[in-house]
């Protein structure tokens, strides 16, 4: 492992020119860890490196930053634990390796973070969990709860059951999906390269380093190369794919080398990294999908007070709902209709239709007694709600 104790003069000048914000200035950070950083083919888990990462995470947490970790390494660690040979694995071998590796990886993260009085919470996801709306809501709610409880979510791709998801570079894009799902303002991809070059530097010695990327254009994408390690399923191309997902949603991205100890501290100390700036006019892909790409499964008619609340950025509470129409399930898209019959908003409902009917018009404190279980306070949370000026809808009993 190459370890740099202090940044060079060139790196200090680079850091000054880039004017990179300190990591503790961000509110919520997603850190993606590449397999080659965590696992050595001969010795297995790189414990010293992981301990240094734990110290970095603890320092950020102490500064008030919420940190989530998207970790590769389950298959790589599992193949080491199970003694599988080098080279490509069959699907069932990859899944077996993931099953063994996930246990070891979760244990290692829990131990390292506990040394700093931090709890780890493991979340196993596939890309489908961040795209299918009910699973998306459940995943986001769980991650949000872990953060509120001051735990560090450690997110792994669920390779034990995934099929098409076990392929080149998914965890880079999964990290970007998690970052946008959780409204993180920074995504850090730790890899075996320190940033973006005009060409793969191991192939072209004249490649120039790019400290800042204003936008990921076709010219920028043309600079991507292939994976640099047999344990890596992604190369620069998938990192740029992740950058496009993150930047479009207003999340900045940093690609930095993780081959040194304390890789997050190194970014603040001026070690090389590439900053990909977020879009100045971010498109909230999730809300765009809610408002434009789905037909509503039902309608909620609200009162004037609720309409005012929605326009001021509030969630829709049951107390403001006057009528419920349609047969829908939790997570379906419903139209929210004002007293004048116009569609005022569209969002993802937190209740099945049968329960929504029971609690319509009732105060939040009454809901648990009515339904017999502790439920969400909002019928539609503001994060799942798009306020709009839309066409008049005929609201008739169905």
Q: How much of the sequence is in beta strands?
A: 15-25%
How many beta-strand elements?
19
Give the neighbour order of strands across the main sheet.
5-6-4-1-7-11-12-10
Q: What's the average pLDDT?
A: 83
H/I helix tally: 14
Task: Tell me the helix content.
Answer: 25-40%
Dominant shape? globular
Radius of gyration: 23 Å
Low-confidence stretches: 1-8, 10-17, 165-169, 226-233, 389-398
Characterize the biggest β-sheet.
Answer: 8 strands, mixed
The assigned structural class equals: alpha/beta
Question: Which keywords apply here?
Answer:
single chain; 398 residues; alpha/beta; eight-stranded mixed beta sheet; five-stranded mixed beta sheet; 19 strands; 21% strand; globular; disordered C terminus
Question: What features would you describe in this structure?
Answer:
The chain is an alpha/beta fold and 398 residues long. Helix content is 36%, strand content 21%. It is built from 14 helices and 19 strands. It has helices spanning 9-18, 35-38, 47-62, 74-82, 91-114, 133-148, 170-181, 218-221, 236-248, 263-268, 285-292, 304-311, 353-359, 367-371, and strands at 28-33, 39-40, 44-45, 66-71, 119-125, 151-157, 186-191, 196-197, 209-210, 212-213, 252-257, 273-276, 298-302, 316-317, 321-326, 333-337, 343-348, 378-380, 385-387. The strands form five sheets. An eight-stranded mixed β-sheet has the order 5-6-4-1-7-11-12-10, with helices on both faces. A five-stranded mixed β-sheet has the order 15-13-16-17-19, with helices on both faces. Strands 2-3 form a two-stranded antiparallel sheet. A hairpin with a 5-residue loop joins strand 16 and strand 17 (343-348). Helix 3 (47-62) packs across helix 5, helix 4 (74-82) packs across helix 5 (91-114) and helix 7 runs parallel beside helix 9. Mean pLDDT is 83; it is low at 1-8, 10-17, 165-169, 226-233 and 389-398.
